[in-house]
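Late entry, written up from scratch paper. The run itself happened at the end of the previous shift, but nothing got recorded in the book at the time, so transcribing now.
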Amino acid sequence: MRLTSYLQDSRLTIELTGEIDHHCAKSYIQTIASKIEAYTPQTCILDFEQVTFMDSSGIAVAINALRNMGRIGGSLLITGICGQPLKVFKASGIEKIVEIKECVL
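Output as recorded:
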């Protein structure tokens, strides 16, 4: 698990990498929550471009980020989703509650 983040114009971008499964999801959830709390952005962008695999734990990461943004009156955007992670997101129906932008191939 590796995570990079930066804040620009009240938009917190968090770039996730590697695999997201039950082994690392809790750490991602906690780290993202602490960044949202520290920066209180208007928008949080979870960038999944470098995520190569995820199970349902990736959905939990997104839902927790959505809840944290809701607490501060902000919004969540998920970007860069391709391949297998995209299939997991689509199967969950999460696009009904979170804006998703697929990767550009």
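The longest strand covers residues 43-54.
(Scratch paper discarded after transcription.)
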